[in-house]
Amino acid sequence: MGTSFVETMPSLAIAIFIMLVTWIVARFGVKISDAIVGRTEIRSSLKNLIDTIVKLAIWLTGLFIAAVVVIPTLTPASLLAGLGIGAVAIGFAFQDIFENFLAGVLIMVREKMRIGDIIECEGITGKVEHITLRETHVRKLSGELSVVPNSILFKNPVEILTDVDQRRHEVVVGVSYDTNLDHAADVIRRAVEGIDDVLASKGVDIFAQEFNSSSVDFLVRWWAGSTPRSGWESKDKVVRKVKAALDEAGIEIPFPYVTHTFKETVPVSQLGDTGKRAP
Fold this sequence. Notes:
By secondary structure, the protein is α+β, with helices and mostly antiparallel strands.
């Protein structure tokens, strides 16, 4: 065994040298890939995928050459056969890891859901900060960082709130039953269209929606910024402006009333034997 080890030392030294060269080539390969891809308009997540593929291809080639130097009888056919048997066992053992890996590749390739988008999936709402081959980092609106496996984002519906610059927002406004609905709708429309954050050019919808318990409800819809903060700010301005406009027009926004009814009670001493009140 000692003699065999000494005899293989030159091959091991050459294999180690090949690994060192592979490391250097992989670094330069990634830089060359960045220089070529950097001239295009490919999104950053896809650039990371290309860098990973280039690095992986160089390392696999270097490892194969080093293995052939150490084991001269090794051939591509025997290597593929061994990898095929090992891949089955590894596939069962690391099923979730490979699932997330493939989901990460597909997420990076598709055009939607870029870094910086605000998404909502499986109860998680936040900003996409980083996409790797196994997981995606989503910063919640409250500041916490959620590390989401890519398989969850790939297999479940994902709402991309910032896919476009504007989206529709809505609020319900109730008016009293004695109100002229056409007049109330006109007052609400003029109030909403006068707000700077509202895109009046895309239209403001006022729909009489429901006969509620104490009011007739209007569904008010408008277009504003697509981020959650833009939606909250525009809704705040709409509610304030509509309330002031309805008050100025003398239109009541009803709220539940409570009516107390008192019955006259008769003392027991005033009741006769029959249970009726004595004359």
